[in-house]
C-alpha cells in the first residue's frame, strides 16, 4: 500500500490572487513617497484578491481610502488594466500604462505659490 501526502500546491481549478509586480509597486511607491513628503498621505494598504489587486491610500489610518489604485488583468485588452479611483468611487483615470494613469495623482502635488 502506498501513502501519498496531500499536495502543498493549490488545486488546478483555484485561480491565484492578482498581485502587483515588483516594478509596478516601485512606480506606485515612488508617487506615494512624494505625497507623504508633501504631507498629503499617511498610510496605505494592499489587497490581493481573486480578480483585482488594490493599493489603497489613506490620509489617516481609520478613514476610508482617498484613492484606490487597481489592477484588473481581465480588462487588459479593453480599457486597460490599471485604474485610479477616487473616494466617491469615480474612476479618475484608466489605461494600459501605470505611469500615465498615476499622473492624475501627481497633479495634486502642483500648487500655486503665493
Task: Describe this structure as you would to a colleague.
It is a single chain. This protein has one domain (22-106). 22% of the residues lie in helices and 24% in strands. The chain is built from two helices and five strands; from the N terminus they run H-E-E-E-E-E-H. It has a five-stranded antiparallel β-sheet. A hairpin with a 4-residue loop joins strand 4 and strand 5. Helix 1 (22-37) runs parallel beside helix 2. The longest helix has 16 residues, at 22-37.
Element-level helix/strand string: HEEEEEH
Residue windows where pLDDT falls under 50 for at least 5 positions: none
Structural class: alpha+beta
Question: How many whole angstroms does the radius of gyration measure?
Answer: 18 Å
Number of separate helices: 2
Distance between the termini: 83 Å
The beta-strand count equals: 5
Please state how the strands of the largest beta sheet are arranged side by side.
Answer: 1-2-3-4-5
* Overall spatial form: globular
Q: What is the count of structural domains?
A: 1
Mean pLDDT over the full residue set = 80
Q: β content, as a range?
A: 15-25%
InterPro entries: DUF2794
Pfam family, one: DUF2794
Organism: Roseovarius litoreus
Protein name: DUF2794 domain-containing protein
Amino acid at each position: 500500500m502506498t501513502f501519498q501526502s496531500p499536495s502543498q500546491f493549490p488545486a488546478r481549478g483555484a485561480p491565484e490572487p492578482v498581485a502587483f509586480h515588483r516594478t509596478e509597486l516601485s512606480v506606485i511607491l515612488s508617487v506615494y513617497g512624494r505625497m507623504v513628503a508633501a504631507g498629503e498621505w499617511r498610510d496605505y494598504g494592499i489587497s490581493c484578491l481573486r480578480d483585482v489587486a488594490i493599493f489603497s491610500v489613506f490620509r489617516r489610518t481609520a478613514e476610508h481610502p482617498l484613492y484606490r489604485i487597481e489592477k484588473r488583468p481581465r480588462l487588459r485588452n479593453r480599457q486597460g488594466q490599471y485604474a485610479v479611483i477616487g473616494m466617491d468611487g469615480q474612476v479618475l483615470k484608466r489605461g494600459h500604462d501605470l505611469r500615465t494613469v498615476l499622473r492624475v495623482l501627481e497633479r495634486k502635488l502642483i500648487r500655486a505659490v503665493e
